[in-house]
Amino acid sequence: MSLNEVWEAASAHPYSPIISKNSQFFVGFTLLFAALIFTGLFGLNRSFTSIASFGIPASLAFGFGAVYMICAVGVYV
User: Fold this and answer.
1) Residue 11 is assigned to a structural domain of this protein
2) How far apart (Å, rounded) are the C-alpha atoms in residues 10 and 2?
3) Of 39, 45, 59, 71, which residue is least crowded by CB atoms under 10 Å?
4) How far is CA 63 from CA 15, 29, 48, 51, 57, in A?
């Protein structure tokens, strides 16, 4: 398949994101709030099991929430 054929085939199916631009602020705010809650719970109970149950979800929620919030306010990364 040549590059021109790939280009023509891709033009028939435009990209549409899973989370629309209108709901990025809500998703970002929710993830950042969840990260705040998980971080607080992790700080109250520091054990090896709390790393998996609170630490990892807190860091993932903060990472994705920060990106969604940055995109929601118009700064594109």
Assistant:
1) no
2) 12
3) 45
4) 24, 12, 22, 16, 10
**In a domain? residue 16:** no
3-state secondary structure of 49: helix
| 38, 42, 54 from 47: Cα distances, Å | 14, 8, 10
Number of domains in the chain: 1
Q: At what angle do helices 24-44 and 56-72 cross, to 10 degrees?
A: 150
Range of the domain at 47: 21-77
In a domain, 5, yes or no: no
- pLDDT tens by residue, the chain, 77 residues: 788 888 888 888 888 889 888 999 999 999 999 999 999 999 898 788 888 899 999 999 999 999 999 989 988 76
